[in-house]
Design goal:
It is built from 9 helices and 15 strands. It is an alpha/beta fold. The chain folds into 2 domains: 126 residues, NAD(P)-binding Rossmann-like Domain (Rossmann fold, 3-Layer(aba) Sandwich); 154 residues, Dihydrodipicolinate Reductase, domain 2 (2-Layer Sandwich). It has a 9-stranded mixed β-sheet, with helices on one face. 46% of the residues are buried. Bound molecules: NADPH dihydro-nicotinamide-adenine-dinucleotide phosphate (NDP) and 1,5-anhydro-D-fructose. Its EC number is 1.1.1.292.
Amino acid sequence: MILSKIRTAVVGLNMGLEHAHAYKLAERSELRWVVDLDEERAAKVAEELGCSYTTDWTSILDDVDAVSLCTPHHLHAPQALQAIAAGKHVLLEKPLANSEQDCMNVIRAAEAKNVTLMLAFVVRFLPAIRKLKEAVDSGQYGRPVSAQGWVEAYLNPVPGTWFASKEKLGGGVLFSHGCHYIDILLYLLGEPARVSHFGTRVGTEWMEGEGTSHGIIEFKSGALAHLVSSWGMKYKKTPAKFQLHMTEGMLELDNSMWKVLAVSKSGTETLYERPKEYPVRPGQNVLFEIEHFLESIATGRRPETDGHEILKSHRTIWAMYASLGVPVNL
Ligand SMILES: NC(=O)C1=CN([C@@H]2O[C@H](COP(=O)(O)OP(=O)(O)OC[C@H]3O[C@@H](n4cnc5c(N)ncnc54)[C@H](OP(=O)(O)O)[C@@H]3O)[C@@H](O)[C@H]2O)C=CC1
Ligand SMILES: O=C1CO[C@H](CO)[C@@H](O)[C@@H]1O
């Protein structure tokens, strides 16, 4: 079905604030509602963006075509199922759900209702990541040998919240934050073959899941990847976010995620840098994924980060957790 303007709503207004700004920027969307349990917050955002607000997201389903769910992880599956049952297209913040069974339930429900289900893996849609993919696939730099990624941050302790609960978060920092780079690694390097993982709570004892994670993936191609994810690195400032060493060169993503360098026998080349038309403004980073979601709805095409695609990277993480440092065959 081709809709002229897709009527949208955003539920949960912390990360969801970015979605709301992006829906406001996107031509295909008419942002109609913002929803948060905190009425004052919802009212403030609604006033800024010129839409309606409520604290009860289920009351607006008749008035929208699509909804972004930007709520705590343990609510993703039940809320997605409810929105899908009402025939709404869903852009779900990561993760899809905290268990494989819940993931499958959401995927099957969306297929049965013939609605678009997309996972909001914002990093995947950044132009720099597209450029990295193009460079890897071009063959110009040879074959992937070794990738290193760093997802290092410091999270102010929030004990007693859903973030601190392993059950509600669905794991630790790897599942909640490193997941972006597990997705990128699979996107760039293909099918994983074996994984291994260590996690620690040292320095992040306020949370039940691991606050620092070291994971290794061996790909079917033979390439290796090492990902460090952490919410406990108060003083670390990495110059690079991601490096991929190839047989004929090296590709590097900088910490802003808006610059890609290539090093090869012909020297160092900037493959991509943030252009002037992408100023830093609220909603800009997620605009690419929001536009992909709206286009998928309008055209009926499968979104790139649909449930099946994302379940592959969730399974990789679950296998890493199961490995406890010992390689586990996937
Ligand atoms: N891709 C990215 O870069 C990021 C993604 N995220 C993802 O976004 C999602 C939300 O995370 P985050 O924003 O950090 O979480 P927060 O807990 O900070 O914000 C969630 C918001 O949702 C509200 N909320 C909770 N339940 C409901 C409900 N039933 N109806 C309406 N509003 C509700 C909360 O209200 P209240 O506080 O009153 O409970 C809160 O304002 C997660 O899936 C997370 O993984 C988060 C950060 C970055
Ligand atoms: O990328 C991200 C940034 O950090 C958040 C936590 O503060 C994560 O949940 C999120 O996925």
